[in-house]
Amino acid sequence: DGGITQSPKYLFRKEGQNVTLSCEQNLNHDAMYWYRQDPGQGLRLIYYSQIVNDFQKGDIAEGYSVSREKKESFPLTVTSAQKNPTAFYLCASRPRQGSSYEQYFGPGTRLTVT
Amino acid sequence: GQQVMQIPQYQHVQEGEDFTTYCNSSTTLSNIQWYKQRPGGHPVFLIQLVKSGEVKKQKRLTFQFGEAKKNSSLHITATQTTDVGTYFCAGTDRGSTLGRLYFGRGTQLTVWP
After folding, report:
1. To which H or E segment does residue A30 belong?
2. Phi, psi of B81 (to 5 degrees)
3. Mind listing the pLDDT tens digit for each residue in A26-52?
């Protein structure tokens, strides 16, 4: 089955701890994205990557970091510097080539920090 | 910067009634997409519109892209309980080579049986 996997589905952490969210895709897509979703806020872009070893900040990158060492993997680290990390985190990907900008989303990770 | 506004934020309808959500961009878009997110789920792509004035239909769903490519709408005829969810529009800036989407805040649709 081709798709995007995010793990775990639910994650609980204590304040002050860094936490890394996993995102893996076997769609052979070049571009990958991380979004944060809060109630009533829609989807806000954290980071995105068009190719391996390259990534750009989105609209709310502060307190987050990413890496793109492999085409299929784009992990997101929520650092202790992120003031309000509790949220639903969505990873997405799309082919770099072609006319469609359709993004394929993973099932998401719900992070709760107390 | 680029902004995509979407209204209304919430819509409650009785089953069988129609529903419309509207999307407006602060800049001209190269294309617009619509996604549906069921409660507890993740966004799923519905459709992409590219041409000025384009209209596309998927069964009871009708999507329109404005002539100026700055606005769009999604209309559902005779809603069903299976239509429940949040509908997002997302646009790509004209001239963008990075493929990033700018999402509206979504319209949360509730359908009463």
Report:
1. none
2. -65, -25
3. 999 999 999 999 987 789 999 999 999
